[in-house]
Each structure stands twice: as structure tokens, then as C-alpha cells.
Amino acid sequence: MDSTGATARTPRRRTTLWQAAGASTRSESPVAGSRSLDGAQYGALLPTIRLAVDRDGASTKKLPPRHKPHTVTANAASASGGIASSVMKTPRHTYHQRRSLLSALHRGSATQHEEELPIIDAVVGGGGGDSSADDKAAAPSGRGVKIAMYGVLNTVILIPVMISFAQIIFRDPVFQPYMTDLIKLVLVSAAVHQLCFTLTSSLSFAIGQVQDAGLIFLSAMATATVQALREADGAAFTMDEVLATVLFTLAGSTALLGVALVITGKLQIASFVQYLPMPVVGGYLAYIGFYCLEAGLSMMSGKTIKDPADWLQLANGDALLLVAPGVAAGLGIFVLLSRCDHVAVLPGCMLAIVAAFYGVLLVTGVSLEQASAAGWVSPPPDAPRSLADMYAFYDWRRANFAFVGRLAPAWVAMYFVVAFSSSLDVAAIEMALGTPLDHNHELQTVGISNLVSGLTGGFTGSYIFSQTIFTLRGQLDSRLNGVLVFLLEVALVLCPVSVIAYVPKVFFGALQTLIAADLMTEWMWHARHKMLFREFAIVWVTFLAMNALGLDAGIVLGIVVAGFNFIVSYIAVSSVRRVVKRSRVERDLRERALLQTARLAIVTLELDGFIFFGSSVKMMDEVRRHVLVSTAEAAAAHAAALSMHASPLRSFRHSAADDTSSSVPSASLPRVGDTTDARNDSTVDVPDDDDDGLTTLDEHTEFSIANDSPRTLRALRTRFFILDFEKVRGVDATSVRSCFHATKQLLAQHGVVLVFSSVPPHVERLLRAGDVIEDAGGSALVFESVDKALEWCEDELLVDAGVLPLSESVPREGDGGCRMQLLHELLPKHELDTGDGDNDNSDDQLAAVLTKEIGDLYVQPLTKRAGEFVYRAGEPVAGVYFVGFGKVDVFLPTSAHERMGPGFRGRKRILRVCQGGIIGASELILNHRHQFSAEAKGDRTFLFFLSKPKYKAMQLRHPRIAARFQQAMLQSMARSVMESNISDD
To answer: What is the reported pLDDT for 709?
Structure first.
């Protein structure tokens, strides 16, 4: 988690505070490990990511080439298709024109190529010039100098941050007399972390230190322990007991955290700990900033400032005089870094603070001792302690662990936050490296480091991703850099001089104010541009809750509020969608013409996601909004409802009648069409008995159909209602009763058949247990796919319209004349030419008749049993097939389907062709090989096969009959195109 802000996730690049310093603080405080939360993370974008843009506009992520900044010109960069500047920045939004706060520093350390420490390049490369044999001979020594300088720079950047961390962990006033020793213990822990990461990390350039992710929790544990001991011991309260208890508690928590992280990595569940809502993380990061500000004010003023009420202690001249310079300096650096994007800004400002302080002392004649007595500098320790003396604080005999159990919630929260932030660190390094990393392995590395740190009396730590990337950009593929950082930190610990006795409090106060300003502005202001308003409000709710209720309660409350926000958002986004679909069944042209209009009597709703109690009401509203009934039916139902409420006896009778009507078979449904010569015209009218108009069940929308042409697409009374569960992941028991059972009853009252399709097995069990689906004789039907459900509904509509399915018109065996008569009826009628003579028309009619004799010349009857192939995919197209009886499935074979790519399994049915349908017409016209296979279904399938040569001969000898065959193929394909345009397939 990056202490640099969230705004960096917007297209602009705003380097964060700690990134600029190269000590990018992690998600919590001025830590040198600030985590930029790119992409999969929360926080600032990594300024270390380079985008090289080629002339074709493609961008590629890569490591920067090693070249000397002064040798690259704009023209050269243009010629190479690259960018001469240090980093190509993404376009900035108009809402934020200022430069990234800490990017100046982090860019110089971690990403900026032109500002890539030119002094180091000069020392290592000899100041430029052409390479020579001498340069190559000097390469090993130059590499050693480079490693040494990067190690020193990393240490210089990290040490002030570690000192600030120590002051935040032990911010309670009781620790102030021991601050020098406690700071050195933190530095020891930082050195231990660095050694562990150097030895165990898969990244040879890894930098790992005490980090900010667990910082606030450690501080809270230390403060809570002091308060509990003070209340329990009273006058017997001693610092020996306090130090022993606090240090053992923090070290034990760190060791247990390490064990938990190792187990998490071993179980390969690193992704589990990343399930923290971004707004909650943002509120936590903002709280870290505010916590750092309070810690800085407390350190500078010498007052105890733990909550907003304590700020009143600063309302006096002396306190304001002590804190004002540090706060002003921190805010000034914040503004300066926002506008000046250079590597030297932050180090120069921090050095200027120290120089200005001693300059003022020199001008005013105030000694360092006097400044220390006035509160400007921490007093030196009475007698410097050795490392062994500092570890004497860890005394089992003096520790009191009676209150450790109270810290369990804080430890659990710390585990999730540290694991989460460590995963973000790894993801940031992964992006800069351009190579995938094993997050579980890296989490184990962090766990081992924390385990060793805890066993040696240390504190929580992780990757310092900004310094890791800084070293990566230096192309130092050596563990010696980490070893050098470890040795320098150990040397500082062993040094008898106290650093804080010579560095003014203003220095650390400005550093902590800078962190606070960056984190709070990022998450409490700039983050509004990349969150929904409700999510941005959760950031504030989490932040305020942490300040009012405490860290643990604030995180829990933030997660709960984020959970409710998700439920509200999930309900608001419709999981129900009305679609117009057709079955993948190719029928006779006249049946297809009828279904084109009658199909609107089928309502299909696609359900998506998880159907639960929160979405039940919305789904019922969708049902009422899409089911159409006649206005007379709606009025009668409304009157019946009123009478039910008026009389208990009538209500009982009405309920009994409803129960009876709910089991009425579909054959009793109102008719969709007329039986009168339904097959004598290619366009079938669909009369409707709802001439008084239609209305939805919620009575909000009415459709007047009295003046509509029966041949136009128009709303029809709903006959079938299909619920498609293909995209449903699950349902809960509440939705089964309040949604699906209620839907079933509502539809049954209006004579609408409820159909379920693609229901997952575990969902079907719940629906059957809730009496939504009955085993037999129920009013709800279940099909394994929406295609089969639509096929059944369309068959019912055809039967309801009085159309006898052609599959029942079986030609007798051996009756060739009957069969040719069937084919003659299946083909479109010949359109007569407009002429004056009746004899000409009569001749045309005779010439277009397909007699048995003519049919035998061209058409080959075929009989296929179930499972026999009509043709296979890849075979040359020999001709076209007309289905005279039975059904044929056209499908993509398993081998061809799976060759399409991952995720495609098994054979895929393209369509089912029934009697009157045509197979292979498109391949015949395109003169291609068959793309699919065709297989006969049913006991016996009868086909008419017209080969290519026979068709050409027919065109020459019997053009009128050939025109009918051609018209049948064109109409079939045209009808398919029209149906496809209307449907949502």
C-alpha cells in the first residue's frame, strides 16, 4: 500500500511523496517503501514504468536503455522512435495540472533516466566518451564503485525514515527518555530485514526494511500496553516493566506475523489477503497520514497528541512556536515537489532545514544545549548504551503478558494489511521488472524476514519497493548492494553518537508533515476522480471512524459499509435482461414466417450473477414489466384482487381456483393463430384476440394493437416466460421463495407457462425443494438449454396455431409419387410472369410442376438412420439436401471446436433442420467445403439430394423448376438473415 496517493492510478502520473524521496513510504507512513498501487494496486502509479512509443503508435513496457543523458538529443530520440525524456508521462487531466509530489525524488531514484544520478555515471563511466579497451578493463572496478555508491545512497535515504518510524511506534511520552535506544533497536530490525531479503529473495537487488504497513498497529499495541499497565499497576508502574512488556509483545507479534505469512504463501493463497476494498484501504492510508501528522506534532511540541481533542494543547505561543516551522517546512516541500520535478529537490530541502537551523543558532548565538533545553533538539542520552545494554530491556522476569489477549484483533488486522501491502509491493516490482513473479514465494520471503526479525526482538517489515526499483534501474544484479546497506545500518547502530541529538526536531516534523500532506490529499481529495461518489464517501467514513472509534473498529466499520455499498450497487446494476431469441431450428419456410411474428409471445429473460434476497424485488418488477396480458384480463384480475380483500370466503374460493388453474396443461392456452389453411401462403397472418389492447402486469405500459397490420412485428400477449440461468452462479433460499415461487404463482394466474433453462444442478435442487419445480404435472418446465426451451415453445405455438408439424406427414415407403408430391409442396410456388395470355400462364404453371418423372431425373431420395452422417466437415460440397421427413443436426465437431482455442470443449450444435428445411445451401453457393457436419436424428430421416451436376442440368432443361429450387435456397438464407437481425443471438 502506497503512502503516495491513489490519484496516481488515474491516467496522469503523480509521483508520491516517498517515491520522490526514493523513500517512498509504504501505505502508512514515511517509510522508504512507499508502494505505488498501479493497476492491481492502490496508490500512485509507478514512475518507474517506461513506455517506449514506436512510430506505429504501439507502446511497449521495458527497462530504460543505458545511455548518458547528455549524449541523447531530441532528434536522436525521434529517429529511434523513442522518447528522450526520462519518462514518457501519460496525459494529465485538467483537474490536476501540478506535477507529482514525490515523483521528483522517486523519479530521480527509481525511474528517471536522464536524472539517473549523473555523478554516479560519471564516476563509473569516466565522464563519457567512446568505450575502449581501458574502459573494459576498468569495468570490474567501476562496478564495485557503482555498487558502493548505490548502497550508500540507499542507506542515506532509508535512515531518516527508519528514525521517523521509531518515533511513530514509540510515540507515547513514556518512551521519550529511551528514544535513542529505541531508534537503534528499529535500525537493528531494519538491518535484519535487509539481510534476510538479500539472502532469501528471488530478486538480487531487493531492499527490505521496517515498513509502514504494520507501523500503526505496532504503535497502537505499544500505546495500549502502556495504558493497560498504567491502569493496573498504578504507583507501581515502572519503565522496566513497560519496556520489557512492549518490546516482547511487538517482537512476538512480528514473529507470529512471519509464521502466518509463510503459511499463507505455502498454501498458495496469497490472493486471499488482497480482498480488501479499495475505499477502506484509502481511508486507512489517509489515517496513516493523519497519524504521522499527530506524531510529528507530538514530537515537536513535547505534548501528548493522540486524538483531535489533544490539539487544544497547541493553543499557546510556546507550542505553536515549536511546531509551526516544521509544519510550514513540510507543506512548503509538498508544494515545491508538486511543481518542481527534479531528483535533488527533496534531499536539498531536507539538507536546507538542517543548515538553516544551525545557521539560526549561529546568528542568534544560541548553543546546541540551549536549543535542546528549549525543545528544538532531543536531549542526548545520559550515557550511551551498547547493543548488549539495549537488549537488556528484553527481560522475561519483568514482562507482564496479562493484557496481550486484548491485542488479538489488532494483530489480525495487521496480518491482512501487511500481507496485502506486501502483495502490492511485489506487483509494483513485477511491473517495473517486466517479468512475472511468484507472489506466494515472495510472500514467504516476507514471512521469513518477519519471523527472524521477531525472534531477534525486531518489528514488522517488507519490501521497500521504491528503493528496490531504484536499485533495479541502476542495473545492479548483485546482492552486494543489500549487504552494504546491512553493514552501514549495523555501523550506525554501533556508533556511540546519537543522531537525534544533533538533528533538529523540525527536520523530522517536516518529514512527517510531508507524508501526511501527500497521503491525505491523495486519498481524501484526488482519489475522487477514480472512484464512484459512494466509494469516495467510504474513504471519508473509514477515516473518520478510525479517528473516532479506533483503528480496529474503523477498519471493521469501513469493510461493513463497503459491503453494504456493494450490495446496493449489485442490486442497482440489472442482473435481468430481456432478450429476443429464436431456437436454432430451421423449419419449413411457412412455419418460419408464422413464427417471425408469433415468437414475440415468448418472453425470455437472461439472469446474471448471484440471485439473492436483495435482488428479489427488482426481479419481480422485471417480470411484471415484461409480461403482457390483455387489458380485459388485467381489469378482471384487478377486480378479483379487490374482491379477495373484501371477503375472506371469496378469497378462499379464489385461491382454490388459482390452484386448479395453475396445473392446466399448455394445450389450453389461448390460440396464437388460425387453423384455416395455414400452409397455403408463405406469409401467415397471426390473428390475436386481444384487440382491446395489451398491458403489462404492473399496468404502467399499454399497447394498442387494433390498427396494426397482422403482418408487422407487434406486441403479443405473453404465452411462455423463459428464465435463462446460463449466467447464474447461484441463488439463496430467500430468493427461491420470495422471487421464483412468487413468479410462478403470478404467471399461473394469467395462464403463462413458466420455463427454466440452463439451471445449474445445485440451483435446481433448491428450486425443487421450494416447490418452484415439481417432479410431474407442474406448471413450470425445465430444459437443459435455452435453445431447447425455445424449440419447445415454438412447437407449442405452431400447434396452438393449428399448424400440423410436417414431421407427422410421413410419406409411405415405396410411394415415389407421394414423396415427389411432398417435395413439390415444400418448394415455393412458381411466380407467374405478368402476361396477357392465359395459355402462357397455364404453360408456366405446368412447366413449374415437379412431377415424379422429372424429380427422378434430378433428385435422389436418401434415407438415414439415427446417428448416420449426411456429410462431414471438410468434405467437398456435392450438392444440397432438402429434409422431407425427420430431423438433422448440423454441428461443429469436437476436434474443430477445440482447435478454436482454450475454453472451447465438445461439439457445438449449430442448428437443427426439420422437415422442409435445407442443408448445405450456403456451401453450395459459396462452392466451399463443408464447414460443419450433419447427422440424422430420430429413427428415420428422409432427404432429397440435389447434386451440383443435376442442378446445372435442371437449369438447362427445366429452368422453371430450377428457379423454384433456387428460390427455396435464397428464401431460406434471407429468412435466416432477417431472424438473426431481429434476435439477440
So the answer is: 55
Cα dist from 562 to 40, 536, 568, whole Å: 18, 11, 10
CATH architecture of the domain formed by 576-804: 2-Layer Sandwich (3.30)
Q: What does DSSP say about strands 50-53 and 602-611: parallel, antiparallel, or unpaired?
A: unpaired
**HSE (side-chain half, CA atoms, 13 Å) at 201:** 27
Domain topology for 811-982: Jelly Rolls (2.60.120)
Which of 7, 36, 6 lies closest to 95 in space, CA to CA?
A: 7
> Could you give the CA distance from residue 871 to residue 873 in angstroms, rounded to a whole number?
7
pLDDT at residue 204 is higher than 70: yes
Whole-prediction pTM value?
Answer: 0.64
Could you give the angle at the alpha carbon of 186 between the alpha carbons of 181 and 190, nearest 5°?
Answer: 145
**171 vs 49, 147, 417, 547, 909, CA distance in Å?**
37, 36, 21, 16, 70
DSSP state of 700: S
Distance CA 805, CA 5 (A): 68
- Mean pLDDT confidence for 969-983: 84
Sign of the CA dihedral running 325, 326, 331, 335: positive
Backbone angles phi, psi at 702, to 5 degrees: -120, 150
Query: Phi and psi of 897, rounded to 5°?
Result: -70, -45
Q: How far apart are CA 611 and CA 767, in angstroms?
A: 12
Q: Give the C-alpha separation, 772 to 745, whole Å.
A: 9
Phi-psi map region of 478: left, alpha, beta (phi>0 left; psi -120 to 50 alpha): beta
Lookup: cell for 911: 442448428
135: confidence class by pLDDT, cuts 50, 70, 90: low
- Burial label for 920, CB within 10 Å (0-12, 13-18, 19+), is buried
Domain ranges of the chain: 144-337+367-397+407-561, 576-804, 811-982
pLDDT, tens digit (0-9, with 9 covering 90-100), for 650-669: 333 333 334 333 333 343 34
